[in-house]
Design brief:
Layout: E1 4-5, E2 8-9, H1 12-27, H2 32-50, H3 54-77, H4 80-100, H5 112-127, H6 130-134, H7 140-165, H8 172-189, H9 198-201, H10 213-225, H11 235-250, H12 255-274, H13 280-300
Antiparallel strand pairs: 1-2
Helix pairs in contact: 2-3, 2-4, 2-8, 3-4, 4-8, 7-8, 7-10, 7-11, 7-12, 8-11, 8-13, 11-12, 11-13
């Protein structure tokens, strides 16, 4: 039935158009970074539904509802702390998106990826003496690489805090969009390339000569909390370079921070191969995806939050 205005009954078609307009107006109030999350969970939800994972699909469908609820609360109450909660919820959903990948693991009939990719690694580590160069001065360089890999887990939240402190509060959406763009593209691609870490697929082969406390911590964390679906592209390398690009985008006047994070990301990329956490092609693909995410961010993001 239509709605009644000034004694006249509005046509159902017009009421439907108005309803759609109201939905679009509300949807447009989401941040660009939040729309990325909506797009990702829409893809993940369809994948889950096709595979009969209805509980996973239902949980994915809850993400947009939570984002809309937080947006409505922030708009109605106009409290700064709600906007800050909104920032951190995006990072929380990013972590959930990573673990969500394991639900889409594909059955494997062969292991061609691993046997093909290992050739480049052996060329870099053995034939071109990459491992010998890293270990040339003892445990210092290996420990530095493993430490860089370890602290990556706290880089994103620390960097969000840095955006607040360095005066970029109005650029939070730019930061989050750039970080999420590359990272969520990688999470979408991971199930398409079922593969296993060389550390696990080729146990005892081409391993580092040094076992530092940082490496022990990395191995423990990966064994306890890492996904098993795929290693291509590398999620660690994607996050590392996406964080560097996000700092450049959100804090253009603090170039030193972006450069520092770029160095850190390079160390992480090197360590994924040296530590046998990933194949070299995983890191190369991850850097490409991060660069793509940065390019998309430059085209889409706006300088302020809604």
């Amino acid at each position: 039935m239509g709605t009644e205005i000034l004694g006249f009954r509005e046509a159902p078609a017009q009421a439907s158009r108005d309803s759609r307009a109201m939905v679009w107006q509300r949807a447009s109030l989401l941040r660009s970074s939040e729309w990325l999350l909506v797009l990702y969970v829409a893809i993940a939800g369809v994948r889950a539904g096709v595979r009969g994972l209805y509980t996973v699909a239902a949980l994915d469908a809850c993400v947009p509802l939570v984002l809309f609820a937080i947006e409505a609360t922030a708009r109605n109450l106009r409290r700064k702390w709600i906007d800050i909660v909104r920032d951190w919820v995006a990072l929380l959903f990013l972590l959930m998106a990573y673990w969500n990948v394991d639900y889409f693991a594909r059955p494997r009939s062969d292991y061609a990826f691993e046997f093909r990719w290992i050739r480049l690694d052996q060329l870099l580590l053995n034939d071109w003496h990459g491992r010998a160069l890293i270990e040339g001065i003892g445990p210092l360089a290996p420990s530095l690489l493993e430490f860089s890999y370890l602290i990556l887990y706290v880089v994103s939240p620390l960097l969000l805090g840095a955006v607040y402190l360095l005066g970029g509060r109005k650029r939070v959406d730019v930061f989050l969009f750039t970080l999420l763009a590359g990272t969520l593209i990688t999470y979408t691609l991971l199930p398409l390339f079922p593969s296993e870490s060389p550390r696990l697929f080729f146990p005892g082969q081409d391993l580092p000569s040094y076992m530092s406390v940082f490496r022990s911590a990395n191995v423990w964390l990966l064994d306890a909390a890492d996904i098993r679906t795929s290693v291509f592209p590398s999620g660690h390398v994607t996050v590392a370079f996406s964080a560097a690009f996000a700092a450049m985008a959100a804090l253009p006047n603090r170039r030193w921070l972006g450069r520092l994070l770029f160095v850190l990301a390079t160390f992480v990329a090197i360590n994924t191969v040296y530590g046998r956490y990933h194949f070299a092609v995983d890191g190369a693909a991850a850097f490409t995806v991060s660069l793509l995410g940065y390019g998309i961010s430059r085209l889409i993001t706006r300088p302020s939050n809604p």
